[in-house]
Amino acid sequence: MSGAVIVLEDGMVLPCRAVGAPGTALGEMVFTTGMSGYQEAVTDPSYLGQVLAFSAPMIGNYGTGDACLESGKVWPSAVIATRIGDAPGVAGPVGFRTWLRECGVVAVEDADTRRLVRHLRDHGAMRGGVSTEMGAEELLAQVREHPVLDGRDLSQEAAGPRRVLGDDGPTIVAVDCGMKEGILRGLAGTGMRVQVVPAGTTASEILALGPEGVFISNGPGDPAACVPVIDALTGVLGRVPVFGICLGHQLLAHALGLRTEKLPFGHRGANHPVQRAEDGVVEITVQNHGYAVVADRLPDGITVTRTSLFDGSVEGIAAPDLMASSVQYHPEARPGPHDARYLFHAFRSRLAG
């Protein structure tokens, strides 16, 4: 273990202690309020291009194991926490700190995460860096040269390989923009055969597979920049039922003529209340996004179906005539624990098969 430093682009400097792999990591500095699910969080491809700070006082206290992986790698360029545990537990035999180091991830503890999170809350998400090998002044220069996340399409970089899950039931095509394995299992678990194709697959290529439905996944980056996926969505709307989650929600909104905007510091955590328009029921949801759909001018035939009770942002939309709907949150994560799980079954019920 050795000294390290955290720097934000506005000049804020925080000392810390290295407990992961040595090196320098840059990206958009964001935080999550989740108190558990740390291995799931860092293997979520939506964190590509970001540095992730955990606001909980201690994380990593129940080990790591393959059952908690959402993908095959760690996506944040660095992990920040006040304390990172390193003991085995119910999740697996390897401590979180050791696992991060073995994955080659820059990880630090003894950071004043309370100060860091309050700063990001008050001033908004911004570029940042973590380094075990350079001082604050040199790191700050690199942070300020690092590209911002706005305007970047990261969906194809985050997408996994083509694959098929499930043998029976109606076939859907899932467009992988950085899809979590939990979402894939949630879709297949309702009795659907899921053909996964990477972001960038065209509408004609999707329709040539003969799907009875199309799913658009979560993922990283600026949704307005994901033009290939938006174009593909435009080409399949009205042909088959469409369902989107997280980034997929935002991309469906663009295909329907809405827009997105950057949130001040995003929604990342496991305790976000969302209210359904149809019956007023509140679902407790898991979220991980830095952009939100703007519904100041709704085109004909499009409705807002869900709203955040934290800030009033749009959490769900529907276009019934086009057989399309989406939600901003993650129904597979089950913090309620089953508040939103029904959404996979609702999509399945809309399919012809």
Jot down its keywords:
ten-stranded mixed sheet, 2 domains, about 350 residues, seven-stranded mixed barrel, single chain, 10 helices, alpha/beta, Rossmann fold
Low-confidence stretches: none
> How many DSSP-defined strands?
19
User: Which bin fits the share of residues in helices?
Assistant: 10-25%
Reading side by side through the largest sheet, how are the strands ordered?
Answer: 10-12-11-13-14-19-18-17-15-16
Average pLDDT = 96
For the report, how would you describe the main beta sheet? 10 strands, mixed
Count of the separate structural domains: 2
Global structural class: alpha/beta
> Strand content of the residues, in percent?
25-35%
- Count every helix, treating DSSP H or I runs of 4 or more residues as helices: 10
Span of the ends, CA to CA: 57 Å
Q: C-alpha Rg, in Å?
A: 20 Å
| CATH class term of the largest domain | Alpha Beta
The CATH topology of the largest domain is Rossmann fold
- In CATH, the architecture of the largest domain is 3-Layer(aba) Sandwich
Listing every helix as H and every strand as E from the N terminus to the C terminus, the arrangement reads EEEHEEEEHEHEHHEEHEHEHEHEEEEEH
Give a quick rundown of the structure.
Helix content is 22%, strand content 32%. The chain is built from ten helices and 19 strands. The radius of gyration is 20 Å and the shape is globular.
